[in-house]
From TrEMBL:
GO cellular component: cytoplasm
InterPro entries with a match to the protein in the record: Leu-rich_rpt, Leu-rich_rpt_4, LRR_dom_sf, PX_dom, PX_dom_sf
One Pfam family per UniProt: PX
Keyword field contains Repeat: yes
Annotated PX domain residues: 5-125
Keyword Cytoplasm belongs to the record: no
The protein, known as: Nischarin-like
Signal peptide location: none
Gene Ontology terms, MF aspect: phosphatidylinositol binding
Organism the protein comes from: Sitophilus oryzae (Rice weevil)
Length: 456
């Protein structure tokens, strides 16, 4: 990230190129501060407007801007000469204004987008003017890594001494807003940032200056660049890390820990209840998940997990979603997720429901869009006493004849209470269930009871 005050002798401003857009000539300004560089385009009229403002407010000489020309201003020789003249103009202006850097000139060269000090000036003004509105509505703010990096760099470096005292930066409004937010959202990016050579996900992220109250949401962020989570482990109840390409849960829960092979007391997420790690490259549920023993909701959708791991160290876990992964076999799930109430394993490769047979707390089960073809593979689900919501559509079995009736029959007297594929059974279906149950009982040599649906 650019830092003009510490690289004031390493600034290069040029206009190497022109570009015609919709019959208008734009001059591409290249700005380089230290190792950071960016481009910004302006047409001549924007130079002209800038110049007039600088004459009025900042004592810039009137005759240093190349003059207008109405006739012949599209010829190549004219454009080339103007390019050279405008390059000299903007270089002279920068030398003249480098100690004051008025806002209009900062914005003209896009310093407010890429330079630590000028970016924070804009952010501070935004927090001052809109802070109350943010706090009265969502109490959530979305940061870019470049903003967090700028705050940290400014806090640990001496402030620049601009001759214009009105330009002194006050971080107060930013830190005040941050201290009252319920949740932080951080959006990263692996590509060049805007028109610069800055890559957001190569900027270190240090959360120690911030008091994160309840929620931390990271999207497309490189966890390798998180150097400190600050107080997050003590206070965060909801953590979401998505589209970040991580392969192990430890890369998230221990992202700021150098040696991840041991689980220390200081690494525990003490009040974390909801963890969403969807849309990553997770291969399994590793033991670092036990750092969040108070978890109630675990979401691992759209990863590459092939098996449900032992989660018995999470006694409060109620909701588990591993949608669209690579799960094929689910054996003895009661030994791994015994107290679960809601389980979503849709869009996997599961072929049987037999592994679910002792999940006695289970209330909702989504097995939609798997590979179940045999109706008998679902019989054990009827013995789950708390199950009320069952989703099986998208499996081959759901297109078989009398599929709904046959599945509902497994639930016996509870068939009327079951929502199968988000639908309660009709009276006609319950009548058929009663008949099928009676036939089965007769085959077993017993006397059938045909009053299952309460209406016969």
């Amino acid at each position: 990230m650019a830092c003009l005050w510490s690289n004031s002798n390493e600034v290069l401003i040029q206009i190497p190129l022109t570009e015609e857009i919709d019959n208008v000539t734009f001059y591409q300004i290249s700005v380089k501060v230290g190792e950071i560089k960016w481009n910004v385009k302006h047409r001549y009229s924007e130079f002209y407007n800038l110049h007039n403002q600088l004459i009025t407010d900042h004592g810039v000489s009137k005759d240093i801007l190349p003059s207008k020309k109405v006739i012949g201003n599209k010829s190549e020789p004219f454009i080339e000469n103007r390019r050279k003249a405008l390059e000299k103009y903007v270089q002279k202006i920068f030398i003249f204004l480098r100690q004051t850097m008025p806002k209009i000139f900062v914005d003209f060269l896009d310093f407010h987008l890429y330079d630590i000090y000028f970016l924070l000036q804009d952010l501070s003004l935004l927090c001052f003017t809109k802070g109350d509105l943010i706090l009265s509505s969502s109490r959530v703010y979305s940061f870019k890594p470049i903003e967090l990096y700028a705050i940290n760099e400014f806090l640990k470096s001496p402030a620049p001494n601009f001759t214009n005292s009105s330009k002194q930066l006050d971080l107060g409004p930013i830190l005040d807003l941050c201290s009252q937010l319920d949740a932080f959202i951080i959006h990263g990016c692996y590509n060049d940032y805007l028109k610069s050579n800055i890559i957001l996900n190569k900027l270190p992220i240090d959360l120690s200056p911030f008091k994160i109250q309840k929620g931390l949401y990271l999207s497309n962020v490189s966890l390798d660049m998180v150097t400190s989570l600050g107080n997050a482990r003590e206070t965060v109840t909801t953590l979401e890390v998505v589209f970040s390409n991580v392969k192990r849960i430890s890369d998230i829960l221990q992202c700021d820990i150098l040696h991840k092979n041991t689980l220390e007391e200081s690494q525990k997420w003490k009040v974390l209840e909801t963890l969403d790690l969807s849309n990553n490259n997770l291969m399994d549920i590793d033991e670092s998940i036990n750092l969040a023993k108070n978890l109630k909701h675990l979401i691992l959708d759209n990863n590459y997990i092939s098996t449900v791991s032992d989660l018995t160290q999470l006694p409060n876990l109620e909701n588990l979603s591993i949608e669209n992964n690579l799960i094929t076999v689910c054996n003895d799930l009661h030994r791994k997720i015994g107290n679960i109430k809601t389980l979503n394993l849709s869009l996997n490769n599961i072929v049987t429901g037999k592994g679910f047979y002792k999940l006695y707390s289970l209330e909702t089960l989504n097995l939609s869009s798997n590979k179940i073809t045999n109706i008998e593979e679902l019989e054990c689900l009827g013995r789950l006493p708390c199950l009320e919501y069952l989703v099986l559509n998208g499996n081959n079995v759901s297109s078989s004849i009398d599929y709904r009736v046959k599945v509902l029959e497994f639930f016996g007297e509870r068939a009327a209470d079951i929502y199968l594929d988000n639908e309660k059974p009709s009276e006609a279906e319950l009548d058929k269930v009663s008949i099928l149950s009676a036939l089965r009982i007769v085959k077993e040599g017993k006397t059938p009871d045909l009053s299952m649906n309460g209406s016969s």
